[in-house]
């Protein structure tokens, strides 16, 4: 695989620095001999500038090397791992600038200890391949880090949403399917059609498909009104914010670049701003937070009043709570479950806190005391009696191992025909003095909020009298065996 053009100047800078150091020259000495300024040489060595032919010739003469040797992409053995790294596309697949990392700084670190750092990165990449981590999952992990860095709040997109509402919607009216469909057809020349899993079974797992060559948006006809409205708002977001590089299916069939993932996030964020108005939500939340008692029905009613899915509503909460309420110790996650089965799958997560919370597990069982799981079990039980609505429950969960306590609101909703699984989404808040001061019903605790001691996984849990346990504490037992072995080793003379 060829080295990308953008990386040639980085390679040249590293090579120049390595030859200069091998020749025993300081950067100021090289500047005096070559006639180039120290600041300009620094820019070259950091890979920010590529010198013209005459300046390359001057550098070659100053260091007594051939011109062709200096411009060749072939590196010394010491720097070869860097070339391998560039050819792996690591620096093009990962948008380092978005995460506040200058690629030249990374390469400078590599130049100091190229074999060791490259080996570390190669190890991480090999682990990813061993666990079948796709490029899309890698992109999504980077996106989550980007969201967490900014507390999942982006003022520029909020302002785009405000401008749209001023232009196309009255101050208190809901942005609905009719408005969005009309706007897409008349302003952006869309054709909107539907498909079904009966006529297109291969597309049953997709919610929408956009064909740019014809300007046609195909919607899965099994979508709920809330899902359909969100997809239409997302399409408006792509057009209104002029996001050209975008995915054409939802969900993804294949992610071609991180920019696709990022622009999809921006369009989805925009959709949230116009469907769930910031000022309205803040005012309604304040009303709930000021109540002395928590009400599951009132919170579920709040979600439904915005004609939003619970997942989209919680995501909007994650945008606004850190910025407007100072509540930033929170995380969001989604579980899927097939009614009647005992397997639960963590299908989405976002952490705005580094504290304890659900993480994807391999060969372990999530704690069955989590409200996110118990509410799914209750929903499945009610569905046997033809219940068709959603459920909301709140729980104060204290982790047995760490003592960390979280206030968790979980909403479970029935499966959609194209999904065949029930889903619970949860917003979790770390119990802090700030949280207690903002949510009146936490101090004292509202009687409608249950309290439970929980843990992470059955395999690592020391609550031996747990009736919900579904697996033996094998991990905990192994840890105790190792601890006992270490203690015995210390006692040997």
Explain how this protein is built.
This protein is an alpha+beta fold. It has 3 domains: 5-133, 434 Repressor (Amino-terminal Domain); 149-275, Arc Repressor Mutant, subunit A; 278-480, no CATH class. The protein is 48% helix and 13% strand. The protein has 20 helices and 10 strands. It has a 6-stranded mixed sheet with strand order 6-5-9-8-7-10. Strands 1-3-2-4 form a 4-stranded mixed sheet, covered by helices on one side. Strand 2 (208-211) and strand 3 (216-220) form a beta hairpin. The longest helix is centred in the first third of the chain and has 18 residues, at 5-22. The termini are far apart.
The geometry reads as globular
**H and E order:** HHHHHHHHHHHHEEEHEHHHHEEHEEEHEH
Strand order of the largest sheet: 6-5-9-8-7-10
Q: Return the average pLDDT rounded to an integer.
A: 86
What is the percent of helical residues?
A: 40-55%
Write the layout of secondary structure elements.
Blueprint: H1 5-22, H2 27-34, H3 38-45, H4 53-63, H5 67-71, H6 80-87, H7 90-93, H8 103-112, H9 114-130, H10 135-149, H11 155-168, H12 177-186, E1 191-195, E2 208-211, E3 216-220, H13 225-240, E4 249-250, H14 258-275, H15 278-289, H16 296-305, H17 310-325, E5 330-337, E6 345-351, H18 371-383, E7 391-399, E8 405-413, E9 422-430, H19 433-438, E10 450-454, H20 474-491
Parallel strand pairs: 1-3, 7-10
Antiparallel strand pairs: 2-3, 2-4, 5-6, 5-9, 7-8, 8-9
Helix pairs in contact: 6-9, 8-9, 10-14, 11-14, 12-13, 13-14
């Amino acid at each position: 695989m060829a080295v990308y053009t953008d990386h040639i100047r980085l390679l040249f800078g590293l090579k120049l620095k390595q030859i200069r150091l091998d020749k025993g020259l300081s950067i100021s000495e090289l500047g005096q001999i070559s006639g180039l300024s120290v600041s300009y040489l620094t820019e070259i060595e950091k890979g920010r500038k590529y010198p013209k032919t005459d300046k390359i010739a001057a550098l070659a003469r100053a260091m007594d090397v051939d011109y062709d040797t200096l411009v060749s992409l072939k590196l010394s053995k010491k720097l070869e791992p860097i070339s391998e790294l560039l050819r792996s596309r690591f620096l093009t697949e990962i948008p380092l600038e978005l995460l506040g990392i200058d690629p030249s700084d990374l390469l400078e670190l590599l130049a100091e200890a190229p074999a060791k750092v490259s080996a570390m990165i190669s190890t991480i990449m090999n682990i990813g391949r061993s666990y079948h981590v796709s490029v899309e999952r890698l992109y999504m992990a980077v996106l989550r880090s980007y969201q967490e860095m900014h507390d999942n709040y982006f003022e520029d997109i909020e302002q785009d949403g405000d401008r749209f509402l001023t232009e196309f919607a009255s101050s208190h009216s809901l942005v609905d399917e009719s408005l969005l469909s009309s706007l897409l057809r008349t302003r952006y020349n869309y054709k909107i059609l539907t498909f079904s899993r009966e006529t297109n079974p291969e597309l049953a797992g997709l919610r929408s498909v956009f064909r740019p060559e014809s300007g046609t948006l195909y919607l899965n006809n099994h979508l709920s009104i809330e899902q359909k409205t969100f997809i239409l708002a997302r399409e408006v977001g792509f057009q209104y914010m002029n996001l050209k590089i975008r995915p054409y299916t939802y969900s993804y069939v294949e992610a071609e670049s991180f920019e696709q993932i990022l622009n999809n996030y921006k369009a989805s964020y925009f959709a949230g701003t116009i469907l769930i108005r910031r000022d309205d939500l803040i005012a309604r939340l304040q009303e709930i937070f000021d109540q002395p008692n928590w009400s599951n029905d009132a919170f579920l009613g709040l979600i439904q009043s915005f004609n939003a899915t619970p997942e989209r509503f919680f995501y909007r909460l994650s945008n606004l709570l850190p910025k407007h309420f100072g509540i930033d110790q929170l995380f969001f996650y989604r579980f899927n479950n097939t009614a009647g089965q005992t397997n639960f799958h963590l299908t989405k997560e976002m952490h705005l806190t580094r504290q304890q919370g659900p993480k994807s597990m391999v060969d372990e069982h999530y704690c069955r005391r989590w409200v996110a799981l118990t509410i799914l079990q209750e929903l499945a039980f009610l569905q046997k009696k033809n219940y068709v609505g959603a459920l909301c429950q709140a729980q104060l969960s204290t982790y047995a191992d760490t003592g960390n306590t979280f206030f968790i609101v979980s909403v479970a909703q029935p499966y959609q025909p194209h999904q065949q699984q029930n889903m619970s989404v949860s917003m979790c808040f770390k119990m802090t003095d700030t949280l207690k001061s903002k949510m009146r019903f936490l101090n004292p605790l509202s009687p409608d909020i249950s309290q439970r001691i929980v843990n992470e996984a059955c395999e690592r849990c020391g609550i031996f009298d747990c009736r919900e346990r579904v697996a033996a504490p094998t991990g905990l037992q192994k840890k105790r065996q190792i601890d006992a072995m270490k203690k015995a080793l210390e006692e040997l003379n």
